[in-house]
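Researcher: Quick test of sequence recovery. Tokens follow.
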């Protein structure tokens, strides 16, 4: 199978971008990140891409006002010019429209810091703590046009400790995110994930299964 060409969309710090880039570099994923698209000028993820020698484009969403599709058309153009065939959202804090999703059918992944469908949105960790949840975690899923939804690939449950703050809990979730997102990308890049209705079935034969959920 040909190596997948990954386009990452990110808005911030970029630890998940880094984890996936490192795994591609180590050849643990049969893929290459060919482009980082970032919607926030000055975001830390841009430094990471520069250091890793990965091409980047900044498309500032604020210059598009409410025209989401306008932003997406620019992004899609950049991704297609580079031959991207797998799109990975890594801390990409924007909702996408059906237009974007239709450009890469069943080829867009997202990571979210809660056990979806609980606590979607921009504050998955804070919302879980505010709700008094005893367990939350993270979800890696295919993207459809709704907020933080689409067939689930991997989930990891992370218990909430009595003394957890948003910071300490976020750090524990992030460790698992950085460990599991490269695994999920590998599974998709190797064609091990099949969609049956709303369910993603994974073929784990011959590879080590991480301690999930
Ligand atoms: C991650 O915790 C990711 O789950 C979250 O943003 C963080 C990005 O971290 N995404 C969402 O909340 C999406 N709704 P990173 O920039 O270090 O990868």
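Model:
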């Amino acid at each position: 199978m040909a190596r997948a060409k990954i386009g990452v969309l990110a808005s911030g710090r970029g630890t998940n971008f880094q984890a996936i880039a490192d795994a591609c570099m180590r050849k643990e994923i049969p893929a290459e990140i060919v482009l980082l698209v970032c919607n926030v000028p000055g975001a830390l993820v841009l430094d990471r891409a520069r250091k890793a020698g990965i091409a980047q484009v900044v498309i500032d969403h604020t210059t598009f006002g409410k025209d989401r599709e306008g932003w997406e058309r620019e992004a899609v153009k950049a991704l297609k010019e580079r031959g991207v065939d797998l799109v990975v959202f890594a801390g990409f804090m924007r909702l996408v429209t059906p237009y974007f999703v239709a450009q890469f059918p069943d080829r867009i992944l997202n990571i979210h810091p809660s056990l979806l469908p609980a606590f979607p949105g921009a504050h998955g960790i804070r919302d879980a703590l505010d709700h008094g949840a005893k367990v939350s975690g993270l979800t890696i899923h295919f993207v459809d046009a709704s907020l933080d939804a689409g067939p689930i690939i991997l989930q990891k449950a992370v218990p909430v400790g009595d003394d957890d703050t948003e910071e300490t809990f976020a750090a524990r979730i992030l460790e698992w995110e950085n460990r599991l997102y490269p695994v999920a990308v590998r599974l998709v890049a190797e064609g091990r994930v099949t969609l049956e209705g709303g369910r993603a079935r994974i073929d784990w034969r011959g590879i080590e299964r991480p301690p999930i959920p």
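The two ends are 29 Å apart (CA to CA).
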